Amino acid sequence: MFPAPAPCAAAAARPDEPVWTFELAADRIRQGDWPQARTACQALLQAHPAHTELRCNLGLIEQLLGSSEAAQGHFSRAIELDPSAPRPYLLRADLLKLGRHLPAALDDYDTALRQPGLQGPERAHAQTNRASTLHALGRHHEALTGFDEALLSDVDTPGLHYNRGNALRSLGRHQEAVESFDRALALDPQDTQADFNRALSLGHLGRWQAALEATTRVVNLQPDNAEAHRALADGLKNVGRGEAALEAYDRALALDGTMAAAHLNRGNTLRELGRAEEALAAYGCAARLDPMDWEAHYNRGIALHDLRRLPQALRAYSLARRLAPHEAQIEWNEALALLLGQHWQEGWLAFESRHRLEPVPLPPGVQVGPRWSGGSGAPAARRLLLVAEQGLGDTLQFCSYVPVVAQQGLVVTLLVPPVLEALLQG
Questions:
Q1: b vs e for 31-50, b when ≥16 Cβ sit within 10 Å of the residue's Cβ?
Q2: Could you count the other beta carbons within 10 Å of the beta carbon of residue 363?
Q3: Which strand (E) or helix (H) includes residue 413?
Q4: Which residues contact 183 (CB under 8 A, 6 or more apart)?
Q5: Which DSSP state fits 241?
Q6: Which residues lie across from 257 on neighbouring strands?
Q7: Which of 161, 134, 158, 138 lies closest to 146, judged by CA?
Q8: What is the pTM for the complete model shown?
Q9: What is the number of other CB atoms lying within 10 angstroms of the CB of residue 200?
Q10: Cβ 333 vs Cβ 311: under 8 Å
Q11: What does the pLDDT read at residue 12?
Q12: Is 412 helix (H, G, I), strand (E, B) or coil?
């Protein structure tokens, strides 16, 4: 909603101006008759070209009538006429923000806030919109500071608490975000977007039942909201209600079939239900909609792996790894597929990626030296600690190679589960 143009300040009309006066223009503005108000202000501007308030009002009227370029021209001319007046900067900043010209909008908000004449509600408006602009630019810490400053003088505006919650959510501070959304909802219980974003933060906190309750409220109020149905499905999935989750994903995708994340999570739900072929089709949809999403290719690889289509699974894992080279879980699953396909050399090499997933389990107080890769050259200390990190069967199998290592003159110590200690002590 644009701010309504303010009636022009009183000024003497010229004698040769029989039709339009400032009073008549102000009357058209109060009535919301924007075409007539524009005609009046344009006529007045011919007689009073240096009237900055008239310029501002005409700019707002042009904006309301959809002529952003003309509006920006009037605001800019008002700034030229009176560079110390804060209102033209503020109005131009709002216009630039709406047009997604965010750096320029931020400059104008900063300039407006530096003017001593900007006080009261207009100052709070500038602080709030400046913080929103910073948030849109991805400068979330600065945005949060801006919202906090605005709240010092205005604690009763629900939108301020809502926007503060969004900044906190972007920073990963989800508990604080929930508290901000709670304050917004206390002031405006009908704010479904605040309720929805609150549900998203609750999900990040693992509070899925509470998230599910919030998304259910949103879906009941907005049955055509595809994102709300998708969030509802995520909540159902995470509380173990897979079949209900599938129904919610299907409703979401019926409303908007382009949501790659919904296809992806629908695939995850199908795979958890043991329906790998259907999951594979869902992952294919996700990958086509967002080819750069490594998770779509990775999960597609897992479904192919489950179906024992190992060459196709390996191709999917390889594509995922190219998109996300630092994700160790991709290489780990790739290693399992390679070993299952009897590609021993490549598989064991990739199997080392498990150390990037989690550290080797060691009892408290045990200190170790550098890892030995088993290549040429024995450890300098001539001592070797072998740690069991797999299941009992794997541990017994690999212990059969201990004599081979001991033949190199190493003192070998085994760290194994207590149930195997007696068997392996000899």
A1: eeebebbbbbbeebbeebee
A2: 7
A3: strand 411-415
A4: 158, 161
A5: -
A6: none
A7: 134
A8: 0.76
A9: 19
A10: no
A11: 43
A12: strand
Secondary element (H or E) of residue 333: helix 328-340
For 360, the token pair is 């080797």
User: Rounded to an integer, what distance in angstroms lies between the CA atom of residue 65 and that of residue 35?
Assistant: 8
pLDDT at 72: 95
Using left for φ > 0, alpha for ψ between -120 and 50, and beta otherwise, residue 365 falls in: left
Yes or no: say if 350 and 344 are a contact pair by the CB < 8 Å rule. Answer: no
What lies within 8 Å, CB to CB, of 238 at 6+ separation is 203, 208
pLDDT at 413: 84
Q: In what helix (H) or strand (E) does residue 272 lie, and over which residues does it extend?
A: helix 260-272
Is-contact 329 357, C-beta < 8 A? Answer: yes
d(CA 81, CA 22): 20
Q: What angle do CA 176, 201, 298 make, to 5 degrees?
A: 135
CA 386 to each of CA 302, 343, 395, 414: distance values in angstroms, whole numbers, following the listed order: 31, 25, 10, 5
What's the confidence (pLDDT) of residue 22?
79
Which has the closest alpha carbon to 177: 192, 189, 166? 166
**pLDDT score for 11:** 43
- The pLDDT, as a whole number, for residue 18 is 37
DSSP assignment letter at 380 = T
Q: Look-up: residue for tokens 């173990």?
A: 240
Look at residue 9 in the predicted model and tell me its pLDDT: 45
Type and span of the H or E element at 253:
helix 242-255
Residue partners of 132: CB distance under 8 A and separation at least 6: 97, 143, 163
> Position of tokens 């400059």?
107
What stretch of H or E contains 385? strand 383-387
Q: Where are the beta strands (DSSP E) in 38-156?
A: none
- Residue 13 CA, chain-centre distance (Å), reads 55
**Max CA-CA distance within the chain?**
116
Q: Residues of the chain whose pLDDT is less than 50?
A: 1-4, 9-18
Q: Taking the alpha carbons of 304, 307, 312, 318 in that order, is the dihedral positive or negative?
A: positive
Contacts of residue 150, Cβ cutoff 8 Å, sequence gap at least 6? 124, 127, 128, 131, 160
Residue type, 40: A
What is the identity of the amino acid at 362? L
The answer to whether 235 and 215 are in contact (CB under 8 A) is: yes
Rounded-to-integer distance, Cα 366 and Cα 385, Å: 10
Residue 377 has a pLDDT of 65
